[in-house]
Amino acid sequence: MAEKTDNIICSICLNDFKQPKILDCKHSFCLICLEDYINKITTDNHFPCPLCRRDIIIPDGGVNEFEINYQLEAEDVSECDACKSGISSEFRCEDCQQYLCSTCKRCHANLTGTRNHVVVLYNKYSQKGNQDNPDQYNSSGDNPLPTETDFCSIHHDKIADYYCKPCTVGVCSRCFVENHNGHSFVDLLDETIRNEIKAELTTLKDSLETQITDFLNYSDSLKRTITDLNQSSKVSCRNVDRQVKKICSRIKKLGEDMKDKIHKSRQEELKKYTEKLEEMKILIEKLRVSVKCTENILADQSTVLWLNKIPLMKQEKQETSLQPLNLPIVTYTWFEEESICEDILLKQLGVLKNLDGPTFRSSFTVDEQEMLDTGINGYDYYIQGIPCCIRVERKKDDPSGDVYLGIYLCMDISEDSPIKSWKVKWSGKLVSRNGTHHIMDEGQNDEGSLYTSTDCNWGWEDFINWTIFADERKGFVDKDGIFSVQVTVKMIASVRSEN
């Protein structure tokens, strides 16, 4: 509840109220004080009341949309907001939300931009202080008090009897005869006509409210499609990064293989020389031993030893002379760099396509028993806020005995979903490593598939024969038993949930 001080002064500026606005918690504050306070602490269009800390939602039209506390406003007659002369106001413009003295009110009524504004007598309006209903009533509570626009535009103290259509003003009988004679008009005192006008305006209001609902639903679809586009772009970029990583990994592997060939060639050529070098070491060591032995014999001064050594030395010389000293023929490695062809790289990277709807892919591991018993679901991918997934099953045709791979698009439409039902066309593709993809498309079906909370699975139970699917030459399943399915979803129509 609001405290007593709340009815005396503004709790923010501690001064008399100026244009007091009342919050949902029934505390009131000056318009300017409230605007300054909200600008400083608002979060996600919410702010806490400065007094009780209750969470308050800011209206769509901003602070000005908070209701005026006419009871507080009546305690202090506001000065004229237009001339700022200190003169007390007698009128209030509901469109400008300004107080006017009688002089400024006349100027206000004659200006083209403000001529049709709703101006009320301030003393009568504030005395009533009705914050819930903008209609003003007299003391008996029977008939509405006329607002300023129901008075004659020339004689401000006379009730307007007629509304001049060409001039779009209300006038008294005298002004109508003198200045608007011959103009088409509406009798403002005819209650039947008043009711007809009010009914027409109410019908137009209801029609606009219907349009607002339609536009809100359309805006919601636009927002969800924007979300889908952002998500599709994000997934596509992630796919590019993954492919680039795979290409880089493959290129790095090829580079390592190339270096292995270089090292192998080096080892083979080095072997030719290292073997020869080892032979030379043994031969040289043998000759050194022979030379050392001969030196010892020469030092002994024995001619007999000399004569015995000479044949041995001749034989050894003859044997070593026959040793070839030609260098082995070798080859040297050289890596010739090629110019990088962007066309080839781009072809390896992939193809960028513009499709009719969101596209996503799921990978599965072949588990024949699980696929036969319950089927396997891929990961959830959100489209228009609805979780979707690819489902694969192993299906057996009873009459023929043939086994097929079944592929389905599943959507989880629940009571809390933004969409009650959804009609789509979609295509499924079994991805092959050698490019021979297997595709099923609903493109020829103008009706499409209708998804609801009860009918949430549509697809092909005989998408591809299991024998063809499992054939390694087709490239659908890799050596680890993994295969991938890709779907593209095109939205045709949807029915929005009322919540």
TrEMBL record:
InterPro entries hit by this protein: MATH/TRAF_dom (IPR002083), TRAF-like (IPR008974), TRIM45/56/19-like (IPR047153), Znf_B-box (IPR000315), Znf_C3HC4_RING-type (IPR018957), Znf_RING (IPR001841), Znf_RING/FYVE/PHD (IPR013083), Znf_RING_CS (IPR017907)
Subcellular location: Cytoplasm
Domain RING-type, residue spans: 10-53
GO cellular component: cytoplasm
Single GO MF descriptor: zinc ion binding
Coiled coil location: 263-290
Gene3D superfamilies linked to this entry: Apoptosis, Tumor Necrosis Factor Receptor Associated Protein 2, Chain A, Classic Zinc Finger, Zinc/RING finger domain, C3HC4 (zinc finger)
Database matches in PANTHER family: BONUS, ISOFORM C-RELATED, MEIOTIC P26, ISOFORM F
Protein name per Swiss-Prot or TrEMBL: Uncharacterized protein
Biological source species: Patella caerulea
